Design the sequence.
C-alpha cells in the first residue's frame, strides 16, 4: 500500500476537525474527566466500525441512489444532535469540587457509551465518507480485505488519538472554569455548537 502515508496524512487533518464527536469529547472531558471519556470513545469507535462495515457492504451506494433514505437518516441524526445540544445547555456544568466528583462517580457508563455510539452513527454522510475515501486507497492487484482492514485500523487509531486530545483539553479547561458562570458559558458554547452542527447536517446534501 504505497499510498498509506497519504491516507494517514489526510485522516490526520480530517479527524481533527471539531465536529459533533470532538465537541462532545471536549464537553464530556470537562464534565466527567478523561478516564470516563475513554468509555465514550470506545462507543464512537464501535459506531465508526459499523459505518465502515456498512460502507463495505455497499450501503453507502444505496444512500447515494436513494435520496429519501438519506434525507430520513439525515434528519434523524440532526434531531439527535439538537437534543444533545439542548440537554447540554440546560444541564450546565456544576460548580464545586465535591459536586464534580459526585457527578463523575455517578456517571452511567452504559448511557455514556450509547450516547457516543449514536453520535458516531448520527451522520449518514459518515457512511458515504467511508464509501468514498477508502476505495481510493484500495489497489486492485492486492487482497482487498487486508487493505480495508489496514485502512480501518489506521483510521480508528488516529481518530482515537484526536478524541483523547479533545477530552484531555476539556479536562484542562475544568481547572480554568472555577465559577458556576464560567462553566455555564462553556456548556452553552458546546451545546450551541452541537445545535449548529445539527442545523448544518439538516441542510447538507449528497453533492
Sequence:
Amino acid at each position: 500500500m504505497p499510498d498509506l502515508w497519504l491516507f494517514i496524512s489526510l485522516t490526520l487533518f480530517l479527524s481533527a476537525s471539531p465536529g459533533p464527536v470532538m465537541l462532545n469529547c471536549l464537553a464530556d472531558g470537562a464534565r466527567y474527566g478523561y478516564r470516563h471519556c475513554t468509555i465514550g470513545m470506545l462507543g464512537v469507535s464501535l459506531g465508526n466500525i459499523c459505518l465502515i462495515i456498512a460502507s463495505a457492504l455497499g450501503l453507502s451506494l444505496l444512500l447515494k441512489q436513494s435520496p429519501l433514505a438519506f434525507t430520513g437518516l439525515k434528519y434523524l441524526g440532526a434531531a439527535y444532535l439538537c437534543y444533545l445540544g439542548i440537554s447540554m445547555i440546560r444541564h450546565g456544568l456544576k460548580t464545586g469540587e465535591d459536586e464534580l466528583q459526585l457527578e463523575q462517580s455517578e456517571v452511567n457508563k452504559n448511557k455514556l457509551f450509547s450516547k457516543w455510539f449514536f453520535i458516531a452513527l448520527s451522520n449518514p454522510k459518515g457512511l458515504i465518507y467511508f464509501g468514498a475515501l477508502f476505495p481510493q486507497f484500495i489497489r486492485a492487484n492486492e487482497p482487498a480485505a487486508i487493505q480495508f482492514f489496514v485502512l480501518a485500523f489506521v483510521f480508528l487509531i488516529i481518530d482515537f488519538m484526536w478524541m483523547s486530545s479533545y477530552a484531555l483539553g476539556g479536562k484542562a479547561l475544568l481547572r480554568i472554569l472555577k465559577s458556576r458562570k464560567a462553566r455555564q458559558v462553556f456548556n452553552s458554547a458546546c451545546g450551541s455548537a452541537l445545535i449548529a452542527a445539527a442545523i448544518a447536517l439538516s441542510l447538507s446534501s449528497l453533492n
